[in-house]
Amino acid sequence: MxxxxxxxxxxxxxTIVVYQAYSPAVADPSLRxxxxxxxFSFNRMTWIKPSFLWLMHRSxxxxxxxxxxxxxxxxxxxxxxxxxxxxxxxxADPAAVARAPVHVQWDPERSLRGAALxxxxxxxxxxxxxxxxxxxxxxxxxxxxTPQARKIAALKQSxxxxxxxxxxxxxxxxxxPPAIARNVLIDA
Length: 188
Hints:
Layout: E1 8-11, E2 15-22, H1 24-33, E3 46-48, H2 52-59, E4 69-76, H3 77-85, E5 87-89, H4 94-99, E6 102-110, E7 116-126, H5 131-138, E8 139-144, H6 146-157, H7 161-166, E9 172-173, H8 178-183
Parallel strand pairs: 5-6
Antiparallel strand pairs: 1-2, 1-9, 2-4, 3-7, 4-8, 6-7
């Protein structure tokens, strides 16, 4: 049986890709600037997800209101690992969660068809105290992957799942430092 809690992501030696869904009003100016700019909110938690399929489930393949644009946000691995080292699980003591600069929750991973799988996907909430660091120091690139998401959805809906599968971003198990893995319940 596969481990229940592992981070699966598209990454290289220096960066990791996380996904977010936004309205065009937030996505367009940020894509033009190649960094997050208003009306992106620096005053509320922002959730990042390394699982493309989990975000597709959450945004209904970029069809949900306010989530019509899918951004691939490339951040530094150092920033990703710093966030996780400062994280508290959302299932922890409510007082600890309230004080935490970063929240982590695990939700069932999704298949291409949207079915819940028997392992979990990590969601990471970057709090107000770190949001500027995230946006200004950790983010190294923003890419609009909405056309790719819509193409995959159309192929899936027309029964061409093998073609759709080939267009998914490559995700593999992220090698987590042991102390961070223990902090957020990643299986060894």
